[in-house]
Amino acid sequence: MIKVARQPKPKILTKKADKWRRTLLSADTKPKRIRAEAKYRHREIKNALVRMFCGKCAYCESKITHADYGQIEHFRPKRGMRGRPDLVFEWTNLLLACGVCNGAGHKSDRFPETGEGGPLVNPCEDHPEAHFEFHCDPVARLASVYGKTRRGITTEEVLGLNRTELREYRSRRIRHLVALAEYADWDPEAASLLEEAKQSSAEYAAFARALFK
């Protein structure tokens, strides 16, 4: 996870959010609520989030859009025990996430409060490097995310940032970068590729930045 600057609100939210919110909060049947709530999936909102997060999951930094559409994630859930339907169309509550981080096995409608180790780390409001250690173990050959604050630990556990498939894929990517670094001192192309790996658009940029400061 890396810090991501919140981009300007999409024009459709400026024009429609208040109306959509009123309609949702006044919905008196489930079908009406579902229809009203679905407005947050507007193409303009999704496109703005894809641009803002460079097509990556806000949480695990995996590239999404080359293989999937990705999901509009409500940081504060829109439903459930901690749900806030009044924030369904709030721009500052919207992120882009992969279906695994945002799925039923991980975040979904979960939102731990302060007394439960929360809130989760928000890449648009917090500095993730203050909450996580991005560690590459040369013996185990694994790139792992470890919480170094209570919120970081909670976030890692809720999102499953070290789930098996993610860690295996991420570790292969980081091992390639480590091998590339051996050539960077004398090969301009290798040095350039390492710099690219640190950019916000790159998968797992947090690891590249931590390893190759």
Summarize the structure in words.
The chain has 213 residues and is an alpha+beta fold. 38% of the residues lie in helices and 9% in strands. It has a two-stranded antiparallel ribbon with strand order 1-2. A hairpin with a 4-residue loop joins strand 3 and strand 4 (142-147).
Would you spell out the secondary-structure blueprint of this structure?
Layout: H1 11-26, H2 30-37, H3 43-52, E1 71-74, E2 94-97, E3 132-137, E4 142-147, H4 150-159, H5 164-181, H6 188-198, H7 205-211
Note the main attributes of this structure:
213 residues; alpha+beta; two-stranded antiparallel ribbon; two-stranded antiparallel sheet; 4 strands; elongated
Short recap of the structure:
With 213 residues, the protein is an alpha+beta fold.
- Measured between the Cα atoms of the first and last residue, the distance is 16 Å
Rg estimate, integer Å:
19 Å
The count of domains is: 1
Going across the biggest sheet, name each strand in turn: 1-2
What shape does the CA trace take? Answer: elongated
| Extended strand count | 4
Q: Catalogue the unreliable spans.
A: none
- Give me the number of helical elements: 7
